[in-house]
Amino acid sequence: NKKGFIFDLDGVIVDTAKYHYLSWKSLANELGFDITLEQNEQLKGVSRVRSLEIILGWGNKTLTEEAFAKYMAEKNDNYLSHIAQMDAGEILPDIPKTLNYLQETQQGIALGSASKNARKILQKVNLYETFQAIVDGNDVSKAKPDPEVFLIAAQQLNTVPTDCIVFEDSVAGVTAANAAGMISIGIGSDETLGHADYVFNDFTEIQTRFIEELINR
Ligand code: G6P
Ligand code: MG
């Protein structure tokens, strides 16, 4: 019984959500305002362009096209300076255990991320070879909450969407998984991710037996 297990990257496999936040925060500060952790929840899973648009809205700022492009590049440079320091030690608890189990049981394993830096990050933490399919921000035309990223991942795994399970920490990502007709597993708080089929705080709360049940259903 082969299922497709599709993982979001930022905030699920590694805690890069904190680096995105730091980079956006320093950019907002430069523009004369601040962003809160609560606001940051709304940026998770959201593309780089869309994130900057939302942030500018919060600060009541408008930018010329040129300045917009400049700030986008600046944010990414800042973010990449954090990424450069990463190694396998940043893989979140029990992710390796889960991935090993899925490999042993010959499940499909894919990445479904909005990030254009996803491949780079997987290489940094030594997980690049673990994924049979990698679909990221370079491969899609419609961002989450559109289901495109997960539908392409299912296709690349040679599975149908109803045989896929998505792990997501973002509101937009859970919405996208649901729209794809997949089982959605929220990683985070019940308050934020109440629309997921299941919610766990992190992978240490996910028992092997639960994964086994997903495989056999
Ligand atoms: C993920 C993160 C977002 C980020 C997006 C684009 O979905 O959760 O916070 O904005 O990827 O990432 P990128 O690395 O391409 O800027
Ligand atoms: Mg995420």
UniProtKB/TrEMBL annotation:
Superkingdom of the source species: Bacteria
CDD domains given in the database record: HAD_BPGM (cd02598)
Keyword Oxidoreductase belongs to the record: no
Name of a matching Pfam family: HAD_2
Cited InterPro entries: B-phosphoglucomutase_hydrolase, Beta-PGM, HAD-like_sf, HAD-like_SPP, HAD-SF_hydro_IA, HAD_2, HAD_sf, PGP-like_dom2
The entry's keywords: Isomerase
Top EC class for this record: isomerase
The EC number(s) this enzyme carries: 5.4.2.6
GO MF annotations, alphabetized: beta-phosphoglucomutase activity
Family assignment from sequence similarity: Belongs to the HAD-like hydrolase superfamily. CbbY/CbbZ/Gph/YieH family.
Xref: PANTHER family: FRUCTOSE-1-PHOSPHATE PHOSPHATASE, GLYCEROL-1-PHOSPHATE PHOSPHOHYDROLASE 1-RELATED
Protein name in UniProt: Beta-phosphoglucomutase
